[in-house]
Structures are given as C-alpha cells and as structure tokens.
What we know:
80% of the residues lie in helices and 0% in strands. It is mainly alpha-helical. Helix 2 crosses helix 3 (71-86) and helix 7 (143-156) runs antiparallel to helix 8. It is globular. It is found in: Cytoplasm, Cytoskeleton. Belongs to the RMDN family. It comes from Lophotis ruficrista.
Amino acid sequence: QVLRKSLQRGFALSAGSFLVYEAHKLISGFAEVHASFKVEEVIEQADYLYGSGETEKLHRLLVQHKNSDDAELLWRLARASRDLAQLSSTSAEEKRQLAYEALEYAKKALEKNESNFAAHKWYGICLSDVGDFEGIKTKIGNAIVIKEHFQRAVELNPKDATTIHLIGIWCYSFAEMPWYQRKIAAALFATPPTSTFQEALRYFHMAEEADPNFYSKNLLFLGKTYLKLNNKKMALLWLSKAKDYPAHTEEDKQV
Length: 255
C-alpha cells in the first residue's frame, strides 16, 4: 500500500509537471506569434509614417524597439535616425550622435540577418555618413567596404533602384576626386579605388530603368554627370526633371 501510494503520488507529480510543461509551450508559442504580429504591426505603421514624411514621429516610434532582434525593424530605425539627422532643425551635435547611432542599428541588423538586402544598403550609407565626421582618410579607407555592401544589396535585390543609384554616387565621387584625395587613396590602397563619369552614368540609368522617376537625386545626378561629360542637351533634360520633381522630403527640397 505504501509503495502504491508513493507510485500514485509520483505519477500525479509527473502528470502535473507534464501539464505545466505543455501549458508553458502553449503560452510561449502564443507569445511568439503575438510578438511576430506586433513586429509586423510596427513595421506597417513605420512604413506609413515614412511614406507620409513624418520623420520625427517615425523615429520616436522605432527607437522604442532599438533592442529588437528583428533586422527589418533595425534597418528601418537606422534609416529613421539618418533621416532625422538630415533635418535642418537638427543641431550639429545631434547630427553627429544620430549618425553613429544609425550605424550601430544598421550593424546590428546585419548581425541579425546577413541576407537582408536593406541591412547591407543602410550599413553602407551609415558608414559613409560617419566618414564625414572622421575625416577624408577614414572616408576613403571605408570606400571599398561601402561599395561591397552596396553590391551585396543589389545581388540580394537586383530591382532596388536606390542601391543601384548609390553605386552610381560612389563612382561619381571617385571620378571627380581631387588630386590630394587621390594621393591619400594611393597611400591607403595598393590599388586605389577609381571610377569614371561614364561608369557613374551607367548606374544612374540602370537605377532609372529599375524604377523610373523614383528619386529626385538620381535625376539631379544624371544631369550633373552629363554636364561633366559636356553633353548640355541631355544635362538640361534631366536637370529639368529634377527641378519639376514634387518635393516630399527635406532632401527633395535641397535637390
């Protein structure tokens, strides 16, 4: 009888433990689904705010999720931080702080998902921004890494016009690089990065083919590049398109 009672008590405890375990699994599963749903909800809200040009509201929304493990949230936060830094109302000190924060968010997004094309794109952009605060030597030193991330982003998403445009900007920057910066580049690299205006023009046109009239700055740089190539007729065509582009963002106004 004692043995039977002990066995019954043991079975009851085991059954109780099993039920607790199953309940925990069920709750955990629900929590994961709920968390996933919440992430999708935040992303949907963030994309709406981004499309509406609500830069400050967007940053306030996403910075609440800066400790997230979701790459989609993190690269959006990197972009929002950078966009906030671009506002004319943002102080010089805040611009610097936001640039470094944006880089950290983009880096974390890459760590969470190396196959996320947007994480590569925004890491490249933010790394370039940080170079503005660290001097020309750092900026040139980071140049190869930046281009590699842009190219990886295009490999992962060949239809992303913005990244193709960014490779064009990279080419344009090296094509017009002044002689003293070329000397720095030669000191940093055995084979310094170089490019031409023809190569930049090819990427700007590729971006326009991928998504026509997608970005005021691409129109501007098509015009500027044609000017560099002494084709004033084509320059006028693209600069006119840039001038007439509806200004939705601070950058559009600057363009």
